[in-house]
Design brief:
There is one protein chain. The protein has 163 residues and is of the alpha/beta class. 25% of the residues lie in helices and 21% in strands. The strands form 3 sheets. A 5-stranded mixed beta sheet has the order 6-2-3-5-8, with helices on both faces. It has a two-stranded antiparallel sheet with strand order 1-7. A two-stranded antiparallel sheet has the order 4-9. A hairpin with a 2-residue loop joins β2 and β3.
Length: 163
C-alpha cells in the first residue's frame, strides 16, 4: 500500500480521508507546496524528522520558521545537531517514518514515532501538512492537527522570521 493510501486510511478514522488533496504539481518543499496550493509558505506545516535515541521524532512547524537551538535544547535537553538529535537522511526518513522526504507527515506513522507540534503553527486559522507523498496535502485547523495526531505535544522550538 502506498504511503498516501496509508495516510488516507488513517485519516478515515477521523472522517477526513476525503479532504486529502492530491496535487498536479510537487509539494515537496515549502515553496512548491505554497505554489501548488496558492497559499503563503508560512501556512505549510513542514515536518522535520530527527533521530531520537534508537527511534525518531517529527516536529511539525510553520513553513517560514527554523529550529531555534536554544529552545530545542531547553525543550529536549540537547542541541538539535548533537547527542543523537540530528535530522534523518532521506533513506532514514523513509525507513523510520514510512514516508518519503517531501511527504513526511504526522499521520500513519510506525509505533513509537513521537510527534511534536510547534507553536509557530498557531498563528494561522488553518495549515497544510503533507499526506505521505511529495504531491499531497490536507487543510486542517491546529485543533484538528492535534486531534489527528494523538499523543502529540505542543512545543516552542522555533524562531519566527524577523525575530
Amino acid at each position: 500500500m502506498s504511503s498516501i493510501a496509508k495516510v488516507k486510511e488513517y485519516l478515515a478514522r477521523f472522517g477526513a480521508a476525503g479532504r486529502v488533496m492530491e496535487l498536479d504539481h510537487s509539494s515537496a518543499t515549502v515553496e512548491l507546496a505554497a505554489q501548488a496550493l496558492g497559499v503563503e509558505g508560512a501556512r505549510i506545516a513542514k515536518s522535520l524528522s530527527f533521530h531520537m535515541g534508537e527511534g525518531c521524532m517529527i516536529i511539525v512547524m510553520a513553513g517560514d520558521v527554523k529550529v531555534d537551538n536554544a529552545r530545542f535544547k531547553a525543550t529536549f535537553g540537547f542541541k538539535a545537531k548533537m547527542n543523537g538529535f540530528k535530522m534523518l537522511t532521506a533513506d532514514e526518513a523513509l525507513a523510520m517514518t514510512g514516508h518519503v522526504v517531501g511527504g513526511v507527515c504526522p499521520f500513519a506513522l510506525p509505533e513509537g514515532v513521537k510527534v511534536y507540534l510547534d507553536e509557530s503553527l498557531r498563528r494561522f486559522k488553518t495549515v497544510f501538512p503533507a499526506c505521505g507523498s511529495a504531491n499531497s496535502a490536507i487543510e486542517l485547523t491546529c485543533d484538528e492537527l492535534a486531534a489527528f495526531t494523538p499523543g502529540s505535544e505542543w512545543v516552542s522550538v522555533t524562531k519566527l522570521p524577523h525575530a
